[in-house]
Amino acid sequence: MAASRSKAKAAETEAAPAAETKRDAAATRERILVAATQEFADKGYDGARVDEIIRVSQVNKNSLYHYFGSKEQLFTAVLERVYENIRARQSDLSIRSMSPEEGMRTLVEFTARIWEEVPEYNRLLASENLHEARHVRQSERIVPMYNPLLATICELLKRGEEAGVFRGGIDPVDLYISITALSAHYISHRHTFEAIFKTELMTPARLEQRRRHAADMILRYLKA
Amino acid sequence: MAASRSKAKAAETEAAPAAETKRDAAATRERILVAATQEFADKGYDGARVDEIIRVSQVNKNSLYHYFGSKEQLFTAVLERVYENIRARQSDLSIRSMSPEEGMRTLVEFTARIWEEVPEYNRLLASENLHEARHVRQSERIVPMYNPLLATICELLKRGEEAGVFRGGIDPVDLYISITALSAHYISHRHTFEAIFKTELMTPARLEQRRRHAADMILRYLKA
Amino acid sequence: MAASRSKAKAAETEAAPAAETKRDAAATRERILVAATQEFADKGYDGARVDEIIRVSQVNKNSLYHYFGSKEQLFTAVLERVYENIRARQSDLSIRSMSPEEGMRTLVEFTARIWEEVPEYNRLLASENLHEARHVRQSERIVPMYNPLLATICELLKRGEEAGVFRGGIDPVDLYISITALSAHYISHRHTFEAIFKTELMTPARLEQRRRHAADMILRYLKA
Amino acid sequence: MAASRSKAKAAETEAAPAAETKRDAAATRERILVAATQEFADKGYDGARVDEIIRVSQVNKNSLYHYFGSKEQLFTAVLERVYENIRARQSDLSIRSMSPEEGMRTLVEFTARIWEEVPEYNRLLASENLHEARHVRQSERIVPMYNPLLATICELLKRGEEAGVFRGGIDPVDLYISITALSAHYISHRHTFEAIFKTELMTPARLEQRRRHAADMILRYLKA
DNA sequence: CATGAATGAGTATTCATTCAT
DNA sequence: CATGAATGAATACTCATTCAT
Asked: What segment(s) does the record annotate as region Disordered (chains A, B, C, D) (predicted)?
């Protein structure tokens, strides 16, 4: 999304705006991806319409098929972008310089903030799981991205255990899934929860409460 | 599902199996519901096909529309059935006679077992949330079903606090969402997790580990 | 329609109203005809729905098919009833005792009143003509009904000519069609005329103006 | 209709008839409109089938929906074309240069010729009125087309009155409706009239008699 | 004879994808 | 390589009519 805005600004400042959008293959690709991300997030894979993506991105239908091959491959490309961005955010954290407890709290809260700030990602992953991760498995780029995160968690657990602040015997995969679950499920299922519990879940105050709840739960679970 | 199985079994043992399923409004409605539950769970609301539902349930297309009105209303009926069954399971627990800790562990583990045993429900709720709970809101029957569950949680919290085993100041809605999240997210997102972490998550042993992990996390969070 | 009201009244005064409607074949037939007249007039033959007719008439679907055989035959029965009622109204006029001019004006104005008071008839005949009078031709009862009317017109023309008030050489069929056209077309096409000329055509005052216009036009046409 | 005939003729004389009709948006649109006009006129709006229109026009179903949006909008487009053609014919008359009586007779006879030559229009308007002019009201193009015609009638009435050949106090809307009614109703209801009066109404001689009848009736009505 | 469940052909409309220019 | 027209299989939904009880 950020990319699309900077692109638009570039178009205004450059000399030949009409010709610019035509020639710039990267920009066309980018506009398609941005529109596709929104459409797939809004409607899910099956509900999304290729026609809507070309309408919003203002590209020709053949361009879309030229750059991405099919609706499925376009969805895969969108997912790759999503995982890249999630990874980029999590890498920014400089957790290695923090204490184990501080690092873990930071990780939990930053994970929560991803779903809050980019709820599209949550929806895309939900849709992908309804399709049994078919597109994630197709991608050669997504799977390798998750090793560093798991490494970070393992390192935090090890440091915490050595420092005597965390228990031993924690399964890092279970822990990662719980960290994600506590915030992602809250966001992705907020509509049914709001309907069932007659309460608002997306106000800033409520979201902060949830972040603390999630971090507390993880830290209490780990406490020696 | 249980109904369909007993129906099938009855058909085999009785004299006229072909005639038995015909011209029986309740049975026809049930066959449609069973097939629809499966189809909607398999493909999500948008991916599901009415034609497939009528093919599997062996009913005439018009019967489906006569009984349920539209694909949307059929989906709503499926969701109502799902929530009813979830509620029925949770009501069976006789938690009131247990100690607060035992009751809470039982609640967490039974919630986990729902998603393990009927993963269809998980998928239906995921699809419904992609549609922003549109059908849940339409239903007059679903919302009221959730009050008793929240009451049970509040009662457990109160008893635990009075007995000095649980902390005070716990938000019951946050707690409910976390209980659900820890097991449901594990199941619903297992496909991406399995792809990313190259590990099996649905073996009996692994599921038991997850159940204990979730219960431990909740109980440690509540411990005074 | 009048028939249906008197029927309803009868039901109220009799002893066993529940049993009465079940057994009375004539009443069932009548209820179907009344509902069918309304539905066919509202939507035209193609737009009309058999299901709507059975819903309104509160009869069983099989009864409708038992009494009338098919949608087409039901429409034919409705048309027969319409033509009967039109004829009955026109026969009431006792034109033979009037002067030729008075008789002709009476005939024109009464014809106009038919379309005003029972616009359903207009619509049924319009729909029937879209189907090229298929059902009218099928009916053995409709065609003979129109001879007396044409005889009345011929007689009026003859008397008027003999009395020196009407011109000779008038084609009675052309005259009949014009008498009908001047009022029926005004009613049947009022919706487009109202849209195009931005004026109201169905107020009592406007209808009276139209009736006089039509009668004036016919009488001036005939004047010696 | 004229367009379709010239198109067909062109195809026959040119080199590549198959290629000529393909990939030409205007021609495709036109083919659809021609086929739709025929189908809607033949069966009425409700009886008409989109499938039949695409079969006759040899276009892809999606093209029809791409160009016209829906069956309703296609019908509206057909009606707009009809009203345009009617207006174009009436504008050709150069009535302003004629005497009031001559002008009025010309207007009546030309109106009659429209229904004789393009009976489809009659049927389309009849169907539209069964739908209470729903599509005419939707159109922004149809309503304005009728002002010039009414202006012509008013001008004829004024000139005739000033010349002492027409009476005063004539309502132009009533007059317009009668001019239309006398010929249109004859055509649109010819099937029932032919069945009832056992006479042929569409022979050239009979049509000429009717035209004179209608013109005589209007002119005698107006005569001072 | 009444009832309501069942039937299957059909009806407008949509969609991902390809082809001609 | 860009453009917009074309494609055809599908998709939710409807309707007149019949059958079993």
From this structure: 1-24
* Residues B161-174 as b or e (16 or more Cβ within 10 Å = b): beeebbeeebebbb
Concatenate the DSSP letters of all residues of chain C into one string. -HHHHHHHHHHHHSS-HHHHHHH-HHHHHHHHHHHHHHHHHHHHHHH--HHHHHHHHT--HHHHHHHHSSHHHHHHHHHHHHHHHHHHHHHTT-GGGS-HHHHHHHHHHHHHHHHHH-HHHHHHHHHHHHTTTHHHHH-TTTGGGGHHHHHHHHHHHHHHHHTTSB-S---HHHHHHHHHHHHHHHHHTHHHHHHHHT----SHHHHHHHHHHHHHHHHHHHB-
- Chain C interface disruption, residue of D174, D179, D186, D194, most C CBs within 10 A: D174
**Average pLDDT of A177-206?**
96
CB atoms within 10 A of CB D53: 25
Hey, of C131, C188, C202, C206, which one would you mutate to test binding to chain D, going by the most D CBs within 10 A of its CB?
A: C188
Place of tokens 């009025």: D104
What pairs with residue A60 in β-bridges? none
Q: Do domains D1-69 and D80-224 have the same CATH topology?
A: yes
**Chain A contacts of B125, Cβ < 8 Å?**
189, 192
- Chain C residues with CB under 8 Å of D80 CB are none
Which CATH number is C80-224 given? 1.10.357.10
How far apart CA D177 and CA C149 sit, in angstroms, is: 25
- The answer to pTM > 0.90 is no
Spell out which residues of chain C touch residue D72, defining contact as CB-CB under 8 Å: none
Residue spans of the domains in chain D: they are 1-69, 80-224
- Cβ atoms within 10 A of the Cβ of D141, count? 14
Per-residue CA distances from A189 to A184, B141, D168 (Å): 8, 19, 77
What tokens does C81 get? 């009833």
Instruction: Answer whether D189 sits within 8 Å of C180, measured CB to CB.
Output: yes
pLDDT in tens, D8-67: 333 333 334 444 445 788 999 999 999 999 999 999 999 999 999 999 999 999 999 999
Question: Which nucleotides of strand E are protein-proximal, with an atom < 7 A from a CB?
Answer: 1-21
Q: Average pLDDT for residues D141-157, to the nearest whole number?
A: 90
* pLDDT value at residue A149: 85
Residue A185 has pLDDT above 50, yes or no: yes
Is the separation of the CB atoms in D101 and D219 below 8 Å?
yes
Regarding chains B and A, contact by 3 or more CB pairs under 8 A is answered as yes
Per CATH, which fold does A1-69 belong to? Tetracycline Repressor; domain 2 (1.10.357)
